[in-house]
Each structure stands twice: as C-alpha cells, then as structure tokens.
Amino acid sequence: MTLINDLRRFVWIAKRNTRSPADGLSHDESAAIHLYTMEWTPSGNSLYAILNRTLRASNRSQLTMKPWFKYLKLFLTALAKLPALSSSSQSRIVWRGVKLNISELYVKDSYITWWSFSSCTKSLSLLESNMYLGQTGDRTIFNIETINGKDISSRSYFSQEGEVLLMPGTYMTVVSKLKPAPNLYMIQLKEIVPPSPLLEPPFYGAFDRDDDSPSP
Q1: How far apart are CA 160 and CA 155, in angstroms?
Q2: Which of 21, 108, 127, 195 has a CA 20 to 30 Å removed from the CA of 14?
Q3: Closest C-alpha to 32, from 165, 142, 213
Q4: One domain, residues 67 and 6
Q5: CB atoms within 10 A of CB 19
Q6: Residues 103 and 54 in one domain
Q7: Would you say residue 28 lies in a domain?
Q8: Mean pLDDT in residue range 25-49
Q9: Last residue of a domain, one of 63, 81, 99
Q10: Same-domain check for residues 56 and 132
Q11: How many structural domains comprise the chain?
Q12: Residue 27: pLDDT above 60?
C-alpha cells in the first residue's frame, strides 16, 4: 500500500514488538493487529483512520478497496483466530464514545450496521477520562453487548486500554437511549445475528458462533 505515509517504518516497529505471538497467530498476523492500533501524527493519517474512512465511504467499491485486500486478508485471519468475547468468562459489555451528539441517528428498536472496524474499551472510566471524551461538551457514549467482539488488548500498541474490536458489518439493535447529564447521551446497543452474513470470512468457518444470540 502506498496510501499511508512512513508505512515501512511502522510495519518494522509492529513486527519488532510482536516477536512472540500467541493464540496460534503467525508473526505477521500478530503484527497486523499491532499495526492497526498504532498512531501516526496527526492521528487522521493513522492506518486505522484511513482504512475506516475507506470502509465507511458511500462510494466504496472494489477499486477503492483493492489496495487494502492483502492487509485485510491478514488482519481478518488474525482476528478470526482470536476467541470472541462472548466465548470467554469476560463481560460482553464494551463501551465506545464520540465527542458529538449523534443520538438522533439511533432510534429505539431500530437495527443499525457499523461498516468499519470499531474500537471499544472494557473500561467506562477510561472512556470518560480527559484523554478521550472528558467531562464537558457534547458526548455520545455507546453501551454495547457484543457477541463477536475481539479482545486485542494484549496485542495492541496501547496495551492498557482494554481494547475490544468490533468487525465491519456488526449488526445491532437499539435497546434504549437516555440523557443522564447535560450534553451527555447514552445509547444501549445489542449485537445480533444479521439475516444474512455481512462480512466475507477470510477462511471457511471463520467467525462461526455457537451462541444463541437471536436474529431479528
């Protein structure tokens, strides 16, 4: 890919930081996850930012996605090898936030699809810290019950953030909405099985579930 400045250096750092991969991941697969979590300066030039802008684009096509195919194959293969949060003893609840009021886009009992990779955290207090959302201005916080979220915290460049990644095509229902404080909006979402698969698996059986999460 030539879409990203200084990519070779960041790839080298990612591979250096992931010399002992676990969970059956190859070195390159572990490095692909680590690379996704790294920050460029400015942050809008980061690999994750450019990739997700491309995934969310209304004019997304085979042509615009082609430069990403090899990386996405490696990245999705790595993520597929990790256990889903719902298959472990950990809580299924994760948190995500934005410094905007976007509550009007989420109607109770409606269904929504997030088409990009979505970074969440297991820690609400971390999300509310000044490093992220802070305590002032318009903020929207999502409380998400996930079934396919992948805990990548041990492979992240920022390993203390409790990062959980939701896949492109995550399909959810809006459970509830509230406004607990001025300028603060909270939206409760629940991931459900879509009527048909929304993400092409990188290999046969990837992302298969054995849970009983309902379909709409």
Answers
A1: 10
A2: 127
A3: 165
A4: yes
A5: 9
A6: no
A7: yes
A8: 96
A9: 81
A10: no
A11: 2
A12: yes
Of 18 and 204, more confident: 18
Rounded to two decimals, what is the model's pTM?
A: 0.89
Q: Is 109 left (phi over 0), alpha (psi -120 to 50) or beta?
A: left
* Together in a domain, 102 and 132: yes
55 in any annotated domain? yes
- Which comes out higher in pLDDT, residue 203 or 19? 19
Q: What is the pLDDT of residues 103-142, one digit of tens each?
A: 999 999 999 999 999 999 999 998 888 878 988 999 999 9
